[in-house]
Amino acid sequence: MYDVAVIGGGVTGCSCARYLSGLDLKICLIERSTDVCEGTSKANSGIVHGGYDARPGTMKAKMNVRGSLMMEELSKKLSFGYKRNGSLVLCRKEQDEAGLHALLTRGNTNGVEGLRIIEREELLSLEPNVNEAVVKALYVPTGAIVDPFMLTVAMAENAAVNGVEFMLSHEVKDIAKDEDGFVISTSEGEIRAKYVVNAAGVYADVIHGMVSKTPMKITPTRGQYCLFDKEVGDLVKHTLFQLPTEKGKGVLVTPTAHGNCMVGPTAEAIDDREGTNTTAEGLADILSTAAMSVIEVPGRKVITSFAGLRAKEAGKDFIIGFAEDVPGFLDVAGIDSPGLSAAPAIGEYVAGLIKDKTGVSLKSHFIDVREGIPSVTLSSDEERQALIDKDPAFANVICRCEMVTEAEIVEAIRRPVGARTVDAVKRRVRAGMGRCQGGFCSPKVLNILARELKLDPTEIQKADAGSEIIVGLNKELENAGGLSAKQSVRSAGGDNR
Fold it and tell me: How far is residue 338 from each of residues 45, 63, 106, 312, measured CA to CA in Å?
């Protein structure tokens, strides 16, 4: 029997697990995929929003502002990429600048620090490539960019070190309430817990409906993105937003925490909770809309495109609290943008709710820091040589685009909540994230995974079950009258990110 079971291994679920692990409780995290960060959290903007956009007094506003303030210190403790680069909300000459003043007022009410409206001359000094039709902007100095993959992984690793059990590849099929708590039926068997935290993203309403009769409706909203080569990573320094509409914050142009440039997203309400495919129309719309923010969008430098799903709730606010009709069932639902920014605050808040409900004490031995995986690319010459002296595998470059070495990949596999798939390695150390998108390094990564996990190469997956990269040997399949030689080894489908 667990004290708390967290359902969902995205950034919100992992944050809840991390902060709950500071309590003297037995905790597990249940995730249907083979890794954490396999859903919405792997396909978003990586933006830490200042908090000027959410309606004052909402849970969204409170969690955004608090989470944004927590993020920098958390990045130092847990060793993930973060940079406070500031953001700008652009106003074109044909637009009503009253929209900027409304955002300024809202941000001030929410407690966002340093907001001010700047004229074009100052704007050009900050962003020389801004479109000539932009006349003013709201300057948000607290805006930042973050590595969304490592934010999620770092909190998962830290939670695991503090005793949280991660039950990956466990899909929740049903939940029943009994006098002791909950019986959670999964694809791998039953799990019992006194409390449940529902952080299931676009499936949060489905999980909620397993035990509660109170209405909840989540609409998957697809956001498509284009990622550019690092060669044009300096197109902008700040994150550039356009004046928001009812659909959301609109298409942004931003640097990433790793030196690329990115534009997106679209905002498409869809029925398919797995609809992470991109479309020609959506990507064309992103590029043309982004051109309203900067002088020239370098479309020929796109190295990949991808899409993610935001979990929009009908009330347009975060739902964080115990279900009215099910004691002990805590919903963390409708966590759309700015959910990444709010994640640390949400985890902290959920842990506070559970602490108040259970009356348990804080752990006296809680470990609140994590050491990151050493990076040859980010090391000085002296640091790099020290790494190689310690382990010669730091001199064996596997991914040439991102300069990722064998030793880094091995450590990513051996870590708590370690990588078990090619995509999981990619998120942790960026092997396959560069210009060739894994075209050269994927076979080597596959072999390292097979060696470290003591599996046959045919068992190694790109991501979830069914995404095996090698499906057989050419001669065996040809002799059996099966697949052709060209078909016998395939690259599994899925999200390039």
Answer: 10, 9, 15, 11
Strand duo 239-242 + 87-92: pairing: parallel
Is residue 118 over pLDDT 90?
yes
Q: What is the DSSP letter of 231?
A: G
Q: Please report the sign of the dihedral spanned by the C-alpha atoms of residue 102, residue 62, residue 137, residue 133.
A: negative
> pLDDT value at position 134?
96
Q: Is 208 annotated in the active site?
A: no
Percent residues over pLDDT 90 in the chain = 92
Name residue 64's amino acid.
N
Domains of the chain: 2-41+149-217+316-358 (3.50.50.60), 81-145+219-313 (3.30.9.10), 381-488 (no CATH)
Out of 49, 170, 208, 258, the active site residue is 49
pTM score of the predicted model: 0.94
Question: Where are the strands (E) in 132-258, listed by range?
Answer: 134-140, 144-146, 165-167, 172-178, 181-186, 189-198, 218-228, 239-242, 252-255
Q: Residue 15 pLDDT more than 70? A: yes
Q: Is the separation of the CB atoms in 64 and 49 below 8 Å?
A: yes
The 10s digit of each residue's pLDDT in 278-301 is: 999 999 999 999 999 999 999 999
Could you give the CA distance from residue 343 to residue 151 in angstroms, rounded to a whole number?
Answer: 10
